[in-house]
Automatic annotation (TrEMBL):
This is Cyanophycinase. It comes from the Bacteria. GO terms for molecular function: serine-type peptidase activity. Belongs to the peptidase S51 family. Residues 1-30 form the signal peptide. Transmembrane segments: none annotated. The keyword Glycoprotein does not apply. Keywords: Hydrolase, Protease, Serine protease, Signal. GO terms for biological process: proteolysis.
């Protein structure tokens, strides 16, 4: 089969999924058991999980019981077989069933005792209330949610305007509460979100136009689901493919619009591991080759003027492999193998005229936001640096500042790797 890849930047669901969510009651979740403390763990990956990533696959398997691990695979965010023109071709197919078979095979090759696809997708919504599938869930020690479109998970596993758990989701939630591991990549990580889960959008359009409740045919429009996803992680908003798709801007705008103080921006092929999610002892750590952005809006202030929207005094931290984070106290703990960076460079920070990697820029380069932040941290010649959006009308300027509390850490003594509390301001020009 064709190996699942990162989703297209302009994914649009067809038919009944492309509907407005504006009428859904945001108070309905009071009836759902989503605020209970969980004893298990989450392993949330920012997408594009490589099958050779033994670090992340190994962590999921270890937390599911090691050699005895039994992993339930859920790929309902993928299109079903009925919508895949290559469903009959194992080399080209990319649908819920063949993607489930792919992940089951990968988990077994990484050492799981068993891995089974749970037959759930938008063509088989009834299976989410099947006692046979619930029994399959109850035989598992861990779960993995694949990528695609997170709203398909909403359609498949949640019920009615109240978004109540289906029987299968209730069984998975109960397993998490008793100590199971729940992992997910891309849409499979997004769906772990609590209220205001992002449903789509690009950074520039989000900064220019703001966010709105709903799921939109225009995939550049910044949308969110007020009721959220499954609510496994509620200490901050979740976004995925963050640097690779330049999503820092949309994450900041959505958090500001919806009153959230924190966003976890997950990078590709890298996991945010969350122990005891939802409890006062919730603890997070980073695993993998990239990192996790923590956007802090506690002191941030937004302003709307005739020129456009602006945000001041947000903070950006970028945690990398081995770093930890206490969600309750907002405290990062840098891995002891990293040392404080003493910048020696004197060259100016390179000009960045596409800070959010616009899809409209044929020469764009991913990770522009992170690259500018790290370049500033690595030089002693500047205390601040600016970068701009590719689009104009208005053109937004992002200003990075080494304000009080900023720190950078290195693994090789030269280049910045982990960043703590870099000030970020966004304004139209």
């Amino acid at each position: 089969m064709r190996v699942p890849s990162a989703p297209a930047r302009r994914t649009v669901l067809a038919g009944a999924l492309a509907v407005s969510l504006l009428s859904v009651s945001s108070s309905a979740l009071a009836d759902a058991p989503k605020d209970r403390t969980q004893a298990g763990a989450l392993v949330l990956i920012g997408g594009a999980l490589e099958e050779s990533n033994t670090q992340v696959y190994g962590e999921i398997i270890k937390r599911a019981g090691g050699p005895g691990a039994r992993i339930g695979i859920i790929t309902a965010a993928s299109v079903p077989e009925s919508q895949d023109p290559h469903a009959g071709d194992p080399e080209r197919c990319s649908n819920s069933a063949c993607n489930g078979a792919y992940y089951a095979d990968v988990f077994k090759r990484h050492g799981a005792a068993d891995a089974q696809w749970l037959p759930l997708d938008i063509d088989h919504v009834v299976n989410a209330d099947s006692d046979a599938v619930v029994a399959q869930v109850n035989s598992m020690t861990g779960f993995f949610f694949g990528g695609g479109d997170q709203y398909r998970y909403v359609t498949t596993l949640l019920r009615g305007d109240a978004h109540r758990d289906s029987k299968v989701l209730a069984a998975i939630r109960a397993k998490l509460a008793r100590g199971a591991v729940v992992a997910g990549s891309s849409a499979g990580a997004q769906i772990a979100s609590g209220p205001d889960m992002v449903t789509g959008g690009e950074s520039y359009e989000g900064l220019r136009d703001g966010s709105a409740p709903g799921y939109f045919d225009d995939a550049t429009r910044l949308g969110h689901l007020p009721e959220g996803g499954f609510g496994f992680l509620r200490s901050g908003l979740v976004d995925t493919h963050t640097g690779a798709y330049g999503r820092e801007g949309r994450a900041l705008r959505l958090a500001s619009d919806t009153g959230h103080d924190r966003v976890y921006g997950l990078e590709e092929n890298t996991a945010l591991v969350v122990d005891r999610p939802g409890s006062s002892r919730e603890h997070l750590s980073v695993l993998g080759p990239n990192g996790v952005a923590v956007l802090d809006l506690r002191d941030a202030r937004a302003h709307e003027s005739r020129e456009g929207w602006s945000l001041h005094r947000a903070r950006y931290s970028y945690l990398t492999d081995g770093d930890q984070y206490d969600a309750r106290t907002w405290t990062p703990r840098v891995h002891p193998s990293k040392q404080p960076l003493k910048p020696v460079g004197t060259a100016p920070v390179p000009v960045n005229a596409d800070v959010f990697f616009s899809a409209a820029n044929p020469d764009g380069v991913p990770y522009g936001f992170r690259t500018t932040a790290r370049a500033l941290a690595s030089t002693r010649a500047q205390s601040s640096a600016t970068a701009t959006t590719f689009e104009s009308g208005p053109r937004f300027t992002v200003t990075f500042t080494k304000a009080r509390g900023f720190a950078a850490f290195t693994g090789d003594g030269t280049d910045a790797r982990t960043l703590l509390s870099l000030r970020v301001d966004i304004a139209p020009r």
